[in-house]
Design brief:
Blueprint (H helix, E strand, L loop, with lengths): L7 H8 L5 E5 L5 H14 L8 E4 L3 H15 L7 E3 L1 H12 L10 E2 L2 H14 L9 H13 L4 H7 L4 H19 L2 E2 L1 H14 L1 H10 L2 E4 L7 H11 L5 E5 L14 H4 L1 H4 L4 E5 L1 E2 L4 H11 L11 E2 L7 E6 L2 H17 L7 E5 L5 H10 L4 E3 L9 H14 L4 H7 L9 H14 L3 H6 L8 H20 L5 H11 L2 H6 L4 H23 L5 H9 L3 H4 L8 E5 L8 E6 L16 H15 L2 E10 L2 E3 L2 E3 L5 H4 L6 E5 L3 E2 L8 E4 L3 E11 L2 E8 L5 E4 L7 E2 L3
Helix pairs in contact: 1-2, 2-3, 4-9, 5-6, 5-8, 6-8, 7-8, 9-10, 9-11, 14-27, 15-16, 17-18, 22-24
The protein binds a DNA duplex through helix 4, helix 9 and helix 19.
Length: about 700
DNA sequence: GTTATAGGTCTTTTT
DNA sequence: GACCTATAAC
């Protein structure tokens, strides 16, 4: 039976397939299990065609896992279910229907860098001072408007308020026109333009309403207005809509998520049934008790009490470190203990509020030789060489893509400098040509001989590559591009080793394309690009279970679970973050984040904070986080770091150096009023002189 | 048109 | 303390 092993509420949620259903699922209450079984039940028991089922997940990884689990229950036909993120589902729809709203199906998707570039460009063309108006802010505002489904033109009409609003409005309009001219969408457009498609073409909407008779949305508390609208449109006809969420885990208000979407579900669908999943199967009673105690401090919430049949488990360990290095050292040591007691590296996760906090932990891990993996921050796809390669591919699959063309027009160096580019752009805009077309008219642009020659050659190269695309797999085509453009040679023969390593990354990229080719034979480069553009931080990790400690932001940890969890930087100003501390809503969302973090842990939770911390190279003293006071004392064991900074050194002392790790003082001598310590380190750095006045050393007990 | 250096500026979270 | 950007020399 599909419902075997489920509790009564879970079973009810699985079996309630007709009509609207709201599942309020606390952390660790088995909602993924409920969702997968529900879909399996709809297909297996209710005999619904898989083609009629839609499931929207928060990450691609979650989609993949859900799909695998459904395949296990109902077999291969599960392949016809549409499972994906809002963004990937919309891409799929837009690829089929793009022409209806004036785009070509080979459209490209801008990554956040490209978006910023285009915003800046638009602002400069409007003669705005980038110092006076931060492009980041403008971008943020435009994104917010798109999430609220406000079109560029509506905005321009109503923007008589502040100067800033006018800047936003006109930048938005120009930016949007440029996107259109480039046959490109930004992330927000993927949702917004799909809605536009549906509202302008009722027949298309109807077709998808007929198709998606059973709709599921996970993490509903984090949907924004546009996503809400999209779901409303699709669900209108059959009203078989199942949303799953937990208002206590709403952590994306800053990117437009609107918690009232879940709070008002029963108003939107008065006939809705509601199922509450309150039994937690994941964490020990201690961890769950702590999580409940913290979240209770939020005022804006529906009362809910998670309970657990699990054992009490170990106390929560609270550690007051001296500074970030000490904190990292503690985490590293604790993990080593765990591993020595037959624990595994991959059971452990380190969670932090901001990506920048990962560095201190990383350094401690390197010293202690602990294998780790960082999710998010700078990833493979953010590397310059990868972005360059992707830009080539984007231009080749979407000839209108000006942003990408500008990126690679002179990479590798081919003597097409800024002034040449400017002339080409002016010419293109005057003649209403794309930049790529303008390249072909090199001689008419009025360029100097050398520049014209270079431009023409580049144009020919791109044309040749575009012609050769036919019939090749993505992998074959990418290797061809790497070779013909000279991109690989650029890195392969570079004098600096660092640059030569980039060639390896390009080869690594071919591994990615091979996997794509295997999964989707005969798909085009533009499909590959879309897949890559929509990967989230969680998706980007490798699939195989590696024996590595996982490091990530608290945001990225949502939906995951680990035996042992460390939350570091538990300090006022860090967590809750400085910029969220202005209003109670901000604080409450930070508290949700704290709740998410705590409930990631199955067996053991460690919380650390620093008494001093260096930010910008400036020393700063933070109070411990207010959330710490909200965890009941009797659930915790508190420790204070016993290492300390010292000035009275003697031979034989064991010390810890911030970079080189543990060592022993061999000798002390005076040199120009300063003492110099000769230290034998355990690490491969060996014996080194250290100035304790410059480098802060910590005393470590033997 | 290309490259090197110095100064100014920033760090929340992400599809 | 790191990263990008404006400026000047090649």
């Amino acid at each position: 039976m599909i419902t075997d092993g489920l509790n009564p509420e879970q079973t009810l949620a699985v079996r309630t397939t007709e009509g609207p259903l709201l599942v309020l699922a606390g952390a660790g209450s088995g909602k993924t299990s409920v969702l997968t079984r529900r879909i399996a039940y709809i297909i297996g028991e209710r005999r619904v065609d898989p083609w009629n089922v839609l499931a929207i997940t928060f990450t691609n990884k979650a989609a993949r896992e859900m799909n695998e689990r459904i395949v296990k229950l109902v077999g291969k036909k599960a392949g016809d279910i549409w499972i994906g993120t809002f963004h990937s589902i919309c891409v799929k729809i837009l690829r089929r229907e793009a022409e209806r709203i004036g785009y070509s199906p080979t459209f490209t998707i801008l990554d956040s860098d490209d978006q910023m570039t285009l915003i800046k460009q638009s602002m400069l063309d409007l003669n705005y001072d980038l110092k006076q108006y931060e492009p980041e802010l403008i971008h943020y505002k435009i994104s917010q408007m798109k999430n609220e489904l406000e079109a560029a033109d509506d905005v321009a009409a109503t923007a008589k308020r502040s100067l800033l609003d006018q800047v936003v409005a006109s930048t938005y309009r120009l930016y949007q026109r440029r996107l259109k001219d480039s046959n490109a969408f930004d992330f927000d457009d993927l949702i917004g333009k799909t809605i536009e498609l549906f509202s302008e073409h009722p027949d298309v909407l109807q077709q998808y309403q007929e198709k998606f008779r059973y709709i599921h949305v996970d993490e509903y508390q984090d949907t924004n207005r546009a996503q809400y609208q999209l779901v409303q449109l699709l669900a209108q006809r059959y009203r078989n809509i199942c949303v799953v969420g937990d208002a206590d885990q709403a952590i994306y208000r800053w990117r437009g998520a609107d918690i009232s979407n879940i709070l008002n579900f029963e108003r939107d669908y008065p006939e809705a049934q509601v199922v509450k999943l309150e039994q937690n199967y994941r964490s020990t009673e201690t961890i769950l008790h702590a999580a409940n105690a913290v979240i209770r401090h939020n005022s804006q919430r529906k009362e809910k009490n998670l309970w657990s049949g699990n054992e009490k488990g170990a106390n929560i360990q609270i550690f007051a470190a001296l500074d970030q290095e000490d904190e990292g050292f503690y985490v590293a040591q604790t993990i080593q203990n765990h591993v020595q007691n037959d624990g595994k590296y991959q059971d452990c996760a380190v969670l932090y509020r901001a990506n920048s906090q990962s560095r201190a932990i990383e350094e401690a891990f390197l010293q202690a030789a602990i294998p780790y993996r960082i999710l998010g921050g700078m990833t493979f796809y953010d590397r310059r060489e990868i972005k360059n390669l992707m830009a080539y591919l984007k231009v080749l699959s979407n000839p209108q893509d000006e942003i990408s063309l500008l990126r690679i027009i002179n990479v590798p160096k081919r003597s097409i400098g800024d002034s040449t580019v400017k002339r080409l752009l002016d010419y293109a805009h005057e003649q209403e040509l794309t930049l790529l077309q303008a390249l072909g008219h090199g001689e008419k642009v009025g360029l100097s001989g050398r520049a014209a020659q270079a431009v023409l050659e580049f144009h020919r190269l791109l044309e040749q590559l575009a012609d050769m695309q036919e019939g090749l797999t993505v992998t074959e085509f990418v290797s061809l591009v790497l070779q013909r453009t000279g991109l690989r040679d650029l890195y392969l023969h570079h004098p600096k080793e660092e640059e030569r390593n980039r060639a390896d990354n390009l080869d690594e990229f071919l591994t990615v394309t091979r996997s794509f080719d295997r999964r989707h034979p005969n798909r085009r480069v533009s499909d590959f690009l879309a897949e890559v553009s929509l990967l989230s931080d969680i998706d980007k990790g490798s699939d195989q279970e590696e024996a590595k400690v996982q490091m990530m932001t608290l945001h990225a940890s949502k939906g995951l679970e680990f035996d042992v969890v460390f939350i570091v930087g538990f300090e006022e100003g860090i967590f809750p973050h400085q910029r969220s501390m202005f209003d109670s809503e901000g604080i409450e969302e930070e508290r949700n984040l704290c709740y998410v973090g705590i409930t990631r842990a199955r067996k053991q939770l460690f919380i650390t904070y620093c008494t001093e911390r260096t930010i910008y190279g400036q020393m700063q003293i933070n109070d411990p986080s207010r959330f710490l006071l909200e965890i009941p004392e009797d659930l915790t064991d508190r420790h204070v770091s016993n290492s300390m900074y010292d000035t009275n050194w003697s031979i034989g002392d064991r010390v810890q150096h911030p970079k080189w790790g543990i060592g022993v003082i061999l000798d002390i001598r005076k040199q120009e009023e300063e003492s110099v310590l000769q230290i034998q380190f355990q690490s491969k750095i060996g014996c080194q002189d250290v100035l304790p006045g410059k480098i802060r050393l910590k005393r470590v007990d033997a």
